[in-house]
Amino acid sequence: MKQKEIALSILPNRPDLDDADDDHALTNWDTPMRSDAFELSDEEKIRRIEGHFRSIMETLGLDLTDDSLQGTPQRVAKMFVKEAFSGLNPANRPHPRLFENKYNYDQMLVEKDITFFSHCEHHFVPIYGKIHVGYFSSGKVIGLSKINRIVQFFAKRPQVQERLTVQIGKEMEKVLRTMNVAVVVDANHMCVASRGVGDTNSKTGTAYFSGKFREETYKREFLNYINAR
Ligand SMILES: [Zn+2]
After folding, report:
1. Does residue 152 sit in the same domain as residue 188?
2. Catalytic residue at 167?
């Protein structure tokens, strides 16, 4: 495999956040997982999380015999395992089929405004926003909905935005067998908006550019396109 570079930057006109209380020092781009992560079945995980979440609610002083609260521990457990964090399980990884690019279209392909919902791994509250991806075909293409699935797979994990951005970029390179990929993530962090500094207006932008997208012309073209409303 060719040597490649990772460009990770805070984009202009998207204000950086004062994240002094969050440690964003990443040592590699894989989600940190235990080696025994999948020894338990989903059903067993749901059963255990339900118990733990019940304890959390009881510790907070909530009355779990109340009709409205009774089902919450199980609902939360199911949501964690089957929805919010389903992207931790490699069994859920999308394996999109590649098609020949029969039109010989060798220009930039862009899919913008893919809505995503993720969770910040420091507070377990939502990160949500839009993701824009672009690539140059290596002769193969995938259906646009498959790009969406790749985005959702990595979003459905406890995340930090920088890792989410790079994981999507690297997966696109692998799946599309191209070294020319761009990913821009434009996100709102509930841990910044609803707690802490309580800033509801700031957005965080992160970007991953490989190959041709590191060249100023293509990068501009991509950024201009995704910023055009
Ligand atoms: Zn957070």
Report:
1. yes
2. no
